Structures are given as structure tokens and as C-alpha cells.
Prior knowledge:
Layout: E1 5-14, E2 29-31, E3 39-46, E4 53-57, E5 60-65, E6 73-79, H1 83-90, E7 93-94, E8 100-101, E9 111-118, E10 124-135, E11 155-161, E12 175-180, H2 183-194, E13 198-200, E14 206-208
Antiparallel strand pairs: 1-2, 1-9, 3-6, 4-5, 6-11, 7-8, 9-10, 10-11, 10-12, 13-14
Amino acid sequence: MAINIGFKRLTIQPFKKGKFPLEKDGDPIVIEGKANNGGMVSAELSGIAKEAKTVSASNTGYYISRKGVGEPKVEFEVLDLPVAAETKILGRTQSEKGVQYTGESTEAPYCAILMESSNTSGDVALVGMFYGVFSLDALSLKTEEVGADFEPENEKLTFTAAANPTAGDYQGMYMAKYAGNDTEAIKEINDNVLLASVVVSASGHTEEQH
């Protein structure tokens, strides 16, 4: 069983609307705990396995239906997500004065994501999702308790995944996963999930690929 230690970084690559093969819409958004640029708290993946169902024949369990996936999604908790990043991944609009607007025409763009952790050997551990959209369904405001230290609230984002629509070997795929220090494998997952925008090296540093 793979053991992941920590949650170092989330890289988000938005795509242009209606473009196939997929085209990147600007630079990737990297959330990695830098001051005033947000940090990742947690990620919980679900729906990556289809619920097994037994099909009966001749009074016995004849076949177990188990092919494919369920309804893959990732529930994120993020601290201090930058407004510009939030505006982009949720499809909101922002005025020149910095006012953010949400309405009936708001439509979140499709994105790819790559989550980075470490394994027990100290190597990089990567989990990517090829294609999906973010949503933020709730916003809370809370009073300050007199005499208590301020504790910021985490934002809860949901990434709902869809199958990779790009033709090729990875068409129809939802998730890619790797843990280790093989630079070619790390390059492969970056190439296929993020379209080679950002490469996570075996040492855990991000580098621009040329």
C-alpha cells in the first residue's frame, strides 16, 4: 500500500473552451504555500472505482460487473486561495477594479490537475486528473470571538472529473498516478496530464519545460 506524506503542491492547468485537441489557457496555477498565494490543506479522492455488481444466472452469481470508474471527484481544502486563481478556475468575471461577479452565464473552465506529495522513501508522489471542473458551492462568514486568536477558515473546493477527451493512448482516462524518482516517468505524467506546462522534478522542485 502506498503511503503519502503531506500535501506539498497543487498545479492546475485551465484549458480553452471548446478546443480539441486541448489547448492551455494561460500559465498553470500553482498553489504551494508561498506567502499570499495560498496553500493546500487536504485532498480526498472518491469515485475512482466502479461499484461492483453481481449478475445472476442459473441461480448463482455468474458475473461481477466492475469495469470502469464511478463518479470521480476530489474534495480540496485550501487556505487563502488567491482571488485571481479563484476567479479563473470557477469561470467568474472580474472588473478592472477587482470586483468579482457570478451569475447565470458563469461557467467553470475545464482543467487538468496534478497533486504532489511524498512517499515514505522521500520520493515524489504524484496524482493527476486529466480533465474536470472546479466548483465552490458555499461561502461562510463567522464572527470573531472576543479574546480568541484568529484562525482562518479553509475553503472547500470540489473537482469533478471527466474522461480525457483527447485522442490517443490516454483517451478515456481519468487519473494518472506515480511515486518514485524516475525523471522520465515524472516527465511522462507532466506531459500527459498538464500538457508539459510544469515539470515536477524528482527533488520536488518545479521547473519550466522548454
